[in-house]
Amino acid sequence: MRPRNSSSARANALAALFVAGLAIAAGGIITNDWIGGDAGDFNDPMNWSAGAPSSGQALTIIQSGPLNATLSADLVADSLTIYGDPGDDPAEVELDMMGHSMTLESLVDPLKIAETVTDSIGALTLKNGHLGIATDALLRFDVGSLQLADGAFVTTGVAEFHGPDSNDPSALRLSMFGEDSGWASADSFTMRNATLAVHNRAFISSPDIELANVRIESVDTESGRPFWADYGGFFLGDVRSVPGGDPTVFRGIFHFSEELSGPTVFEIPFVPDSNPYGGSTPRTSIVGSVNLSDFVLAPYFLTPDPTPYAGTSYLLIVAFDLVGQFGEVRFPDLDALGFPDLGWRLDYQINEYEDVDYLYVDIVPRCEGDVDYNGRVSMRDIADLLARWGPADDSNARFDLDGSGAIDAADLAVLLGNWGACP
């Protein structure tokens, strides 16, 4: 236990405040290091090497493992950097702002969740309060994890999340859940090679939201199930998925207030109207026009047993204007669920009612030759069959259309004999 009330401790704190005052008066930024251990009050001068945080200070937390801190009053500083001890456990900082706000004034790197010079990646969780970044600042993240929960929200001008590895989006993660939790960028929000989780009415708001090679999830963090129609994640502003690695993947239920464009995969759950978990039927909603040719529809089963889903229509998307046909329709991976090929395919139709388009999906028997399950026999099926040419085995049995034990010209003839849309 630190002797907080000792005269020597008070003297040290006063000396630190005096030094800090001199530095600020001289126009310099001073470093203020966290010395409060694994828990403490962010506003307590005894927890920092240069006294209570204030304007003109670069706050630094070098931490091995968890740190649980609170904010007892509004706080202003130049910047905040969090990272782990090199070679030790990563820093895991949780800051409960308790309804207060923290303002960071630096125009360069106002908030860093990890230093690239160390092997330990940092993580920060903010709860119940407002983090304000200078409007003219460039806020950029390369690695690490940032989580906003219980009404925590961030405001800034420009935000960039650029993960280091296009093959591993998990190296950089932004997660937010809970109503009123979210991120608001006045100018732009850009994310590449990263993972984004937007749960339970959390939001991202910006006039320009650009995504590339990003996997986005909207799930119930307690049960792992997607939130229902009135929940999910909200995107407030134009969303553009741009080429650059894999397309953007939206898994779960989402709501878009403006346009949505670019290469995108929709992974939307099948849930019956009378679902066993309660709540209304989930649906993704889009306020704006959508060119479906940019999108891949890849629904998934919410329960381990897919057999009850056949023969029922599912409302998956509601939008003001759905144009064209999906670039690809993927049937759920039954092998991953431990089921054989059940001979199913997906059939979708768009119904218009009062100038709103409703996209329904049915699970129906697959027609012969439709090896990619998209409801039609086309050049894509030929390409898939030719890629498996030769002896048939368990991994490619569905391409052996005549059951001869080989994928050959006879199977190609079967495919060509069923050319076109499935009945």
Structure write-up:
The protein is mainly beta and about 425 residues long. It has three helices and 34 strands. The strands form five sheets. The protein has a 24-stranded mixed beta sheet that branches.
Keywords:
single chain; 423 residues; mainly beta; Type 1 dockerin domain; 2 domains; 24-stranded mixed β-sheet; 4-stranded parallel β-sheet; 34 strands; disordered N terminus
Summarize the structure.
The protein has 423 residues and is mainly β.
Please outline the helices and strands.
Blueprint: H1 7-25, E1 30-33, E2 39-41, E3 57-63, E4 65-70, E5 75-77, E6 79-84, E7 91-96, E8 101-104, E9 111-112, E10 123-127, E11 130-133, E12 138-141, E13 144-149, E14 153-162, E15 172-177, E16 182-199, E17 203-218, E18 233-241, E19 248-252, E20 254-256, E21 260-261, E22 264-267, E23 269-270, E24 284-291, E25 295-297, E26 300-301, E27 313-323, E28 328-329, E29 344-353, E30 356-365, E31 376-377, H2 379-387, E32 390-391, E33 406-407, H3 409-417, E34 420-421
Parallel strand pairs: 1-3, 2-4, 3-6, 4-7, 5-8, 6-9, 7-10, 8-11, 10-13, 11-14, 12-14, 13-15, 14-16, 15-16, 16-17, 17-18, 17-19, 18-20, 18-21, 19-22, 20-24, 22-25, 23-26, 24-27, 25-28
Antiparallel strand pairs: 27-30, 29-30, 31-34, 32-33
